[in-house]
Specification:
The structure holds two protein chains of two kinds.
Chain A lengths: L1 E5 L9 H10 L3 E2 L6 E6 L2 E6 L13 E4 L2 E4 H4 L31 H5 L5 E5 H6 L1
Chain B lengths: L6 E6 L4 E6 L2 H7 L2 H12 L13 E5 L13 E6 L6 E6 L3 H7 L4 E5 L6 E6 L2 E6 L8 H12 L2 H6 L1 E4 L2 H4 L7 E3 L3 E3 L4 H7 L2 E7 L4 E2 L3 H17 L1 H9 L4 H8 L20 H5 L2 E5 L9 E4 L10 E2 L3 H7 L8 H14 L3 H16 L5 H4 L8 H13 L4 H4 L3 H7 L8 E2 L2 E2 L9 H9 L12 H4 L16 H18 L3 H6 L6 H12 L5 H22 L10 H5 L18 H8 L9 H6 L7
Parallel strand pairs in B: 1-6, 7-12
Antiparallel strand pairs in B: 1-2, 3-4, 3-6, 4-5, 7-8, 9-10, 9-12, 10-11, 14-15, 15-16, 17-18
Helix pairs in contact in B: 1-2, 2-21, 2-24, 8-23, 12-14, 13-16, 14-18, 19-21, 21-24, 21-26
The chains are: A alpha+beta, B alpha+beta.
Chain lengths: 130, 611
């Protein structure tokens, strides 16, 4: 099974994945706000977050996690498109966006355009063997 | 339009009003965008004789058709105005995310006119343009300004997506080398554009956009970009400089003998090991990049006393050389701190370093006393340098004099021969006595002494032996400089960055640039048209300067470069032999002996009747 592996430490925040996603899903259009992957910056860290399923209800619990000495709002790291979160929705019309792996077999363009290997496509079985 | 978003935001600061205009498609194709389009608009709208700090000067922010598209290194935006430092046309280029965000908000160009009665900042959300009071931001440094505006936006998600340009105290106080800063560390540095923004009482521009850039041939564009990405990943030059940033050039240029040392008195520095990029390796925590750039050339540091989340973004070669060796300083951490002061207070680190180096030479030679400066400005005194930088930005104490720039400082103390620059713009960190072609470029660059107008070290210094042009030779340099000047003008206009183009092997891969430009715009670009546009803009900038009162006499190098032979290094005994290159340059440019474009050249470029 293929998965996109995200290595936060390798992301430099170039947002190239967002343009790749946009061009893949909307013909002849570059618009990061319509991308299903977003790079979110917290302090000096760049966090790639890939859109997961839409959830109709906002979380009732809120959390903060700490790693690398830096506080991260769990809401920022969450993949869901939800009523409380304005990203992973089409601007203006609010239709939720979700990553579709760029089809079958998976050929995610964000991975294809990522030059730092912050995003890689891995086979889960291979990962276990390693 | 594809590539361009087709709109101009015209802001009238005097009236507190704005209009949205359509971009003329023919003009856009002819001048591409960025620096080219900005120069054309400035030329059409501003009298070249205008006082740069008067409300009649205009301040233009211009993206290129490739900015924000995902084209390789398509992050750049150019600030165009008339320079208060040089009195020449100013174009100062900035990366980061602001150029892209402007286009997502639907503007290729933001043009600021007049002068606000009170300090303001602009808050732009797509078509919604608000004038916000900025009295409480006046006096705040750029880092505080960003944080305060983000708080004022309220919505944390919107704040996260908002990109900003702002000035620090240096711009407010009209320091002649004040810069416009973006993202706390990314700077439109040169030519004093920050002072023009300050003169308009404009503290900041904050932009967020949700719109699209359309691409003419999306499929072709994707194929072109992915092919270039694959090539860049394997490129030897980019893999190296992408990891180290330009600061890696310090050690090599010291060996070559073209490092500025002690106000450009020498070409090699005994303390160079303290400035070696390997020192920063221990401090390096991660890499960062600008929008859409696979080069990732900005290292981020942590200092021993850094707090969590505190960022110190990579030093550029110019910064290390001009705030380091040129001031006799061999402590990398001191340079990081001085660079931070420049970014936070909103100053050009290059001009600032050069100005302080000159003050240090005056001090060492006894023309400037400790009593007068209030500081012990001997070469190598990092503490004094940090304090001098703070004073310059705030125009306090001796800073009142420093803030006028190196040319004014040298004049004031009766030693104009110590000033090293062209058209009053302080010189960058490549000694033209060692690199002859660089000398010709510096002398002829329209904005004054700028290495980036034609980055000749790609051929005179860093090239492998089979491609290396003899740095000491003058033959063939005029043609090389012209080709590079026109190429770089095209890059600045398209919205691409010079750095990867100069670092890659071989340098300046124009066909790749043109392929992306054509796929994105579908406007009929080929290499010839691209180069012609660069040449057209170069000539137009030249005419702006001629109308402003510049003459052949200003296409000159400072006496130190022409008359004082280099005392050390491989270039020992050499001066820059500008007179061997300049007449050929004029001739190849199609200009007369006085450096004025001929009518034939003007009609060839579609610029007839402008002189």
């Amino acid at each position: 099974m293929k998965k996109i592996k995200i290595d936060f430490s390798k992301c430099t925040g170039c947002h190239t994945c967002e343009t790749a996603c946009s061009l893949q899903h909307i013909e002849n259009v570059v618009n990061p706000k319509r991308s299903r992957i977003r790079i979110l910056r917290v302090g000096e860290a760049n966090l790639p977050v890939i859109a997961g399923p839409y959830t109709e209800a906002e979380c009732t619990s809120k959390g903060i996690v700490v790693f690398g000495g830096q506080e991260h709002d769990v809401c920022v790291l969450c993949r869901a498109s939800c009523p409380a979160k304005p990203i992973f929705k089409e601007p203006d019309v609010d239709i939720p966006l979700k990553c579709d792996f760029c089809g079958e077999p998976p050929n995610p363009q964000c991975v294809r355009w990522c030059t730092t290997e912050a995003l890689t496509l891995v086979d889960v079985e291979d990962e276990k063997k390693n | 339009m594809d590539g361009w978003v087709g709109r101009i935001l015209r802001v009238d600061l005097t009236q507190g009003d704005f209009t949205i205009e359509e971009l003329d498609p023919d003009l856009a194709v002819e001048y591409i965008g960025g620096r080219g389009l900005g120069s054309k608009m400035l030329f059409d709208e501003v009298d070249p004789k205008v006082d740069p700090l008067s409300p009649d000067n205009k301040l233009l922010f211009v993206s290129g058709p490739l900015t924000g598209t995902g084209a390789t290194s398509g992050s750049r935006m150019t600030v165009v105005t008339k320079s208060p430092l040089a009195g020449a046309i100013a174009h100062s280029n900035v990366g980061g995310y602001i150029g892209a965000e402007m286009k997502f908000a639907g503007y290729d160009v933001i043009i600021c006119e007049g002068k606000s009665e009170r300090p303001v900042y602009l808050l732009i959300n797509d078509d919604d343009v608000q004038f916000k009071p900025a009295g409480h931001l006046w006096g705040k440094d750029t880092w505080e300004t960003e944080d305060i505006i983000k708080k004022e936006i309220g919505d944390s998600w919107k704040a996260r997506e908002t990109q900003m340009l702002y000035i620090g105290p240096a711009g407010e106080n009209l320091a002649k080398f004040a810069a416009i800063v973006h993202d706390k560390h990314t700077v439109a540095g040169r030519c004093g554009t920050g002072a023009v923004m300050g003169s308009k009482n404009l503290k900041a521009i904050a932009v967020r956009g949700t719109k699209a850039i359309t691409i003419a041939d999306g499929q072709g564009f994707r194929e072109t970009v992915t092919a270039i990405l694959d090539k860049w990943k394997k490129d030897e030059g980019l893999s190296y400089f992408g990891y180290t940033g330009s600061a890696a050039a310090v050690a090599g240029n010291n060996k070559r003998g073209c490092l500025p040392v002690l106000n450009y008195q020498r070409g090699t520095f005994e303390g160079v090991d303290g400035l070696n990029w390997k020192v920063q390796k221990g401090l390096l925590v991660s890499r960062s990049s600008c929008f859409g750039c696979p080069c990732h050339c900005r290292p981020e540091y942590k200092l021993p006393d850094s707090k969590v989340g505190e960022r110190h973004v990579g030093l550029e070669y110019e910064t290390v050389a001009l705030l380091g060796s040129n001031c006799g300083i061999s402590d990398y951490v001191a340079v990081i701190k001085s660079n931070d002061i420049c970014n936070a207070l909103g100053m050009d680190a290059m001009s600032a370093g050069s100005t302080i180096a000159l003050a240090m030479e005056l001090f060492e030679k006894g023309y400037l006393t400790e009593q007068e400066a209030g500081l012990k400005l001997n070469f190598g005194n990092a503490e004094a340098m940090l304090e001098a930088l703070r004073q310059a930005a705030r125009r306090e104490g001796f800073g009142k004099i420093l803030a006028e720039g190196a040319y004014a400082l040298a004049e004031r103390y009766g030693h104009p021969e110590f000033f090293v620059g062209v058209k009053k713009l302080e010189m960058p960190a490549y000694d033209p006595r060692r690199l002859q072609g660089m000398g010709l470029n510096l002398a002829t660059a329209n904005r004054g002494a700028c290495h980036n107008r034609a980055y000749t070290p790609a051929y005179e210094a860093f090239a492998p032996p089979e491609r290396l042009m003899d740095p000491s030779a003058t033959a063939g340099k005029a043609a090389m400089v012209i080709r590079l000047q026109d190429t770089v003008t095209g890059l600045d206009s398209a919205g691409l960055c010079l750095f990867p183009q100069a670092a890659m092997m071989p340098p300046f891969q124009v066909p790749d640039v043109v392929a992306q430009l054509e796929a994105a715009t579908g406007a009929g670009y080929n290499e010839e048209k691209f180069m012609l546009s660069g040449e057209r803009t170069w000539n137009l900038e030249r005419i702006f300067n001629l109308r402003a009162g510049f003459t052949k006499a200003d296409d000159n190098l400072p006496p130190r470069m022409l008359k004082e032979p280099l005392p050390d290094g491989p270039g020992k005994g050499q001066v820059c032999r500008l007179d061997e290159m300049l007449p050929e340059y004029y001739q190849l440019r199609g200009w007369d002996e006085e450096g004025v474009p001929t009518s034939d050249k003007l009609s060839e470029l579609g610029l007839e009747g402008l002189l």
